[in-house]
Amino acid sequence: MSYKDDLAVKIATGNSCELVALQYQALIENTQDLEKYISKNDKEKIFASSDKIRDILSNLISTLGDDNNEFKNASIDLYLYINRVINNVVIKKDTSETESIVKMLETLRDAWYSAGTNISDKNEHKNLSKGITYGKTDVNISGSTSDLGRG
């Protein structure tokens, strides 16, 4: 199974915590790509990677909900900090701070994966599983997105 196929399966079958962990994994991979593109001075890919990082951070912020609580505020502060570091990396072309960001993201990813193993909605997408077809190169998911997250 290719990386893309494996990712499609994880997205289709993951619970809410595992989906957050996948977003952290995407942040890690894009930060590592950013380092690589900066070392090659590939401006187009530098901006594409930093844009992807910002998109993921925006998505993570949007999933925090409307309630004003300590977790939400701390999470937003963390995401804004990561964004500032990434901006400085892009502007200064200095990747010295990216390793600490990657380590932090790995810790968060692992924590969310661990939390995901302890919640009950794992692999209980009964209605969704009926709409999944497997091909040689892809996984096709059909049906209503309202089936996502239902047991």
Helix content: 55-70%
Strand content: under 5%
* Distance N to C terminus: 27 Å
Biggest sheet, open or closed, and with what strands and sense?
A: 2 strands, antiparallel
H/E series, N to C?
HHHHHHEE
Find the count of extended strands (DSSP E, 2+ residues). Answer: 2
Describe this structure in words.
The chain is mainly alpha-helical and 151 residues long. It contains 6 helices and 2 strands, in the order H-H-H-H-H-H-E-E. It has helices at 3-13, 16-40, 43-62, 70-92, 98-117, 126-129, and strands at residues 132-134, 139-141. Strands 1-2 form a two-stranded antiparallel sheet. Helix 2 packs antiparallel against helix 3 (43-62) and helix 3 (43-62) packs antiparallel against helix 4. The radius of gyration is 17 Å and the shape is globular. It starts with a helix and ends in a 10-residue tail after the last strand.
Q: Which terms would index this structure?
A:
151 residues, mainly alpha, 6 helices, 2 strands, globular, disordered C terminus
Chain-wise SSE layout:
Elements: H1 3-13, H2 16-40, H3 43-62, H4 70-92, H5 98-117, H6 126-129, E1 132-134, E2 139-141
Antiparallel strand pairs: 1-2
